[in-house]
Design brief:
Blueprint lengths: L2 H19 L17 H5 L6 H19 L4 H21 L1 H4 L10 H24 L5 H27 L4
């Protein structure tokens, strides 16, 4: 087994465990929850086959749904995020993505925050739209998306900086 595969398996399991054992029990003001498991989708290797990312994202989302009893909303949101990931990468990193030369450990922090922010908002908007699934509650959907996104973005960027950035 190569090291990239091993790192991704460990990341998958750790993020799944942290999400279901810690983050699922955090609930600020009744509607602010962090969903840090999406870091797995953000940091998945660029050069890997896209189908593998889609399948891994589905599996991760389904595992979160099983532990959260949420009926598939996390799987749908995770697969959607994995599907739009190339667009997010291109809009955040531009030519680095075109040349397949993005290394998350050495990218500019602004590009990284842009990428994480766009992806988190997409994921959360889909997640809460499916969870609430009522157009008359659009303000609640937007409120949960906004505040949970801010919390998730801050945590995700901190985790990525702490665990992925090269030590200087």
């Amino acid at each position: 087994m190569n090291s990239v595969l091993a790192v991704n398996i460990v990341r998958f399991v750790l993020l799944l465990l942290v999400q279901v054992l810690i983050c699922n029990h955090i609930n600020f003001f009744g509607y602010i929850n962090p969903y840090i498991y999406i870091i797995f989708i953000f940091l998945f290797p660029i050069r890997e086959e896209r189908l593998i990312l889609l399948l891994a994202s589905f599996l991760l989302g389904m595992m979160i749904d099983l532990f959260s009893d949420s009926g598939g909303v996390h799987a749908a949101a995770a697969v959607s995020l994995a599907y739009v990931r190339p667009i997010l990468l291109k809009s955040s990193f531009g030519m680095l993505y075109e040349h397949q030369s993005i290394k998350f450990s050495t990218t500019e922090i602004g590009s990284l925050i842009s990428y994480i922010s766009l992806g988190t908002v997409v994921h959360h908007l889909i997640l809460f739209s499916l969870e609430i699934f009522n157009i008359s509650n659009i303000l609640l959907i937007l409120q949960k998306t906004l505040f949970s996104s801010i919390f998730t973005i801050i945590l995700s960027v901190l985790i990525i900086i702490l665990f992925s950035r090269n030590k200087k």
